């Protein structure tokens, strides 16, 4: 194949090559040609639609320190008002409940007081029946007759002073107590005085109790009661109190065997036994319970013996001496 002429010609030396023209050195006509050539190429490629411009976001202005402090102060004020309002509601609710409770309690108390007063002063609770118990020597009807002046009086308004005066007229009453049984009953519990002996009074015998109160006077000495002999028959003396204490300490069976009991002082009580010539040196009234038991045991042993004396003044060494 025949190569074109000059294909294999050697390249000229570098010094002989023409220098390339720079883009800036190109003439204006060449630049215009290049622009005209590039314009159709650009026109042949459809251009993408341009995006609408975004509106610029305006950054809010930074608040100043004084405005921030004012906002915080307003928020704190609103929170304080809300807390005060809530606390006021809570306190008001609690006070309302407390007031309702107080008013309810006062109403109940007033109602109870009114009912009690109405019941006390009502004729339904007036005295209609009087009962007496505990009497042996006294006639209960006499006691009822003495206090029946208060029949029809409300139970709560019974005159206790008048009742004491009316019952005090009965010598045999040592003490009493009252019991009210609604709707209209009064019970009087009586404790009668018990005679412990007799004392000579002129040509009669006075029946006396342990306190020396004369329960009655009889022309003849009653059986079963010892004759009390003290100086000048003084029931207020220490000798009488010692005699009464000794008699009260004795069991009924032993007291029934005493014929006379005498004393001139508190410490020399002496007894004589009925139906025999035996006597008892009792001594003082102290330890009378023990002495009574010792004397009962000695009488059981020596009761059938002749005249003699029992010495129980020292109950630990009690003895019987024959005359």
UniProtKB/TrEMBL annotation:
Residues 25-36, 69-86 have a biased composition (Basic and acidic residues). PANTHER family: CELL DIVISION PROTEIN DIVIB, CELL DIVISION PROTEIN FTSQ. It is found in: Membrane. Keywords: Cell cycle, Cell division, Cell membrane, Membrane, Transmembrane, Transmembrane helix. Residues 125-193 form the POTRA domain. It holds the Pfam family POTRA_1. The chain crosses the membrane at residues 100-121. Residues 37-48 have a biased composition (Low complexity). This is FtsQ-type POTRA domain-containing protein. The keyword Transmembrane applies. Its main location: membrane. Coiled coil: none annotated. Residues 1-86 are annotated as: Disordered. It comes from the Bacteria.
